[in-house]
Each structure stands twice: as C-alpha cells, then as structure tokens.
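Researcher: Good morning. I'm working through a list of sequences from a screen, and I'd like to move beyond sequence-only analysis. For each chain I'm collecting a predicted structure so we can compare shapes side by side. This is the next one on the list. No need for commentary yet; just the structure.
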Amino acid sequence: MNDLTEFGRVVDITGDVAHVKFMRTSACGKCHACGMLSTQNEIVVQVKNELNAAVGDNVQVSIFMRKAMRASVLAYVFPLVMLIMGVLFGWLLSSRWHVFQNADSAMAVCAIIFTVLSFFLLKLAAPLYNKSVGNVYKMVGKKAANTIEKGN
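Model: Good morning. Structure tokens for this chain:
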C-alpha cells in the first residue's frame, strides 16, 4: 500500500506538535485516511514537529496508509463486531437460556450495550494501540512562510 504525501499549512504549535491544516485535493475522495468527511473542505491534524516548523509554514506531510488502515479497522470494525456479538448474546439470553421473554428487545438492548462497551474499551486501550497505529502522519518537508517561491 502506497503512502500519500500532502501539503498543508501550520496553524498552531503545541509543544512538539504542529497542527497542520489541509485543504481538499483531488485525492481526498479516495482514501479517507485523514478522517476528512466528504462534506468537509479542510481538516486540521496533529503532526510531530520534527522539522521545527513555525506557524504559517507550508509543510509536506506523509500519510502512512498501512497505519491509517489499521486505525480504521480498530475504529470501525471492532464496534461492528461488538454489535453483532451483542445481538447474538441477546438471542442466547432470550431464545436459548429463557432469561427474557421478548427476543427482539433483548437482542436490541444487548446490541446497544455491547456497542457502547466497545467505545469504552477502545478508549481504555488507546495507549496500547496508539503505539502500533500512531504516527500516521510524518512531517517530511517544510517551506517557511516568509520565503517566496519563483515560478517558471
């Protein structure tokens, strides 16, 4: 899977993290790696400021697609799996173990509980999986805000 490189502008610095604003480009509708919705025209992401960029600098940022896809799997597939497990658990509680009379209600309530639980589990596990899917963005180039590029 190829990495994607985009250009953005630093809008804020917090410690060693730069907040980089990206505008929608032609590639934006294809991968959704940055998290930009189809209705958005810009997004601000946090990138480790390894090149000591300043506010207003134009920077080149590489987006590691493999890590972005792993993050997407965790964010979207895990809650879906938990939802399905909740439905199955609700079915077991009502149809097999006869704990509840109404199978549909039990399945719906368990599905909601399991889905909400998945978000809490993701929040608790964030420090663990941030090591494997973190650093999706890497600053690979910069151009100071006050430099003038001459065109051909």
